[in-house]
Amino acid sequence: MRRCLTGEYGDRLMLGVFPGDGRTGAFAAATGPRLIQRYRAARGIAWPRGIPHAEYV
Questions:
Q1: Which of 19, 17, 13, 35 is nearest to 27 (CA)?
Q2: Separation of alpha carbons 3 and 19, rounded Å
């Protein structure tokens, strides 16, 4: 199974879990401080570079 980061909620990181065929799987929570810190850093870099939804569709 592949995991895709989906969001941060306080001290918990929610992960979307997807099987390899692209179907929606389940969700899992991660609470590791280092993982949450890495997610915040990556989001801080990626978010400003994203294309606004209205311009994408």
A1: 17
A2: 8
